[in-house]
Amino acid sequence: MLSQIRDYLSPTRTALIVWDVQEALIASIFNKEDFLRKASQLIDGARMKGISIFYTKITPLPEKFESKARSVMWRGRGRFEPGDIVKEIYPKEGDIVLNKNTASIFVGTNFEYMARNASFSSLVFTGIATEMGVESSARHALNLGFLPVIAKEAVSSSDKDAHLRSLANMGKLMPVLSNEEILSAWS
Predict the structure, then answer these.
(1) Is 162 within 8 Å of 29 (Cβ atoms)?
(2) Cα(86)–Cα(105) distance, rounded to whole angstroms?
(3) What is d(CA 132, CA 82) in angstroms, rounded to the nearest whole number?
């Protein structure tokens, strides 16, 4: 499969999405050290190839303006404060940070506009949580005509079973590749 998608993963036509790697989420995942190592490896590889890197950052709306549906779902849990992006894989100059309020990189941001202007054909996803924002955004990307690629070693969750189910589900629709496969396609 990799040889078939190698052209899509050309560094000039690819963006790396680093999804919600914020302090509160990193603290809760089942494989923190391995995740940080694998995400760093992919981010460093993207930087070496000049690939655009987009970080997403959960940015809660003021309570009065929050979605009523979201408020009902989170009732009784208190207000979620995600914190800043973790220092181990903090954005560098030239990286783009998108503040967002939903589980899709395409809703409430200018990401689709930027991706189309830059002629991206593929979006490589890393980050947290696999079964939530990563899968939602990857499915949305596929529906918009982008090729989403999931970096299976550089996504995680606080729920290991949900993470594994999500990888299996996404593998039926889109490439779910190792870091080695992704970095090889970029070379």
Answers:
(1) no
(2) 19
(3) 15
pTM for this one? 0.91
Q: Which two tokens stand for residue 88?
A: 């181990």
CB-count burial class (<10 Å; 0-12, 13-18, 19+) for 78: exposed
For residue 166, what are the CA distances in angstroms to 17, 50, 83? 17, 29, 25
Q: Which residues pair with 42 in a beta bridge?
A: none
Query: Is-contact 135 164, C-beta < 8 A?
Result: no
Taking 3-state DSSP, the helix, strand and coil percentages for the chain, each rounded to the nearest 5, stand at: 45, 20, 35
List of domains in the chain:
2-186 (3.40.50.850)
pLDDT single digits (tens) 50-104: 999 999 998 876 677 766 665 555 555 555 567 889 999 999 999 999 999 888 9
Q: Where are the beta strands (DSSP E) in the chain?
A: 14-19, 52-58, 96-100, 122-128, 147-156, 176-177
User: What pLDDT digit, counting tens, does each position of 164-182 carry?
Assistant: 999 999 999 999 999 999 9
- DSSP conformation class of 133: I
> Which residues does 163 contact at the CB level (< 8 Å), separation at least 6?
30, 129, 130, 131, 155, 156, 157
In sequence order, which ranges of 49-101 are alpha helices (DSSP H)? 68-74
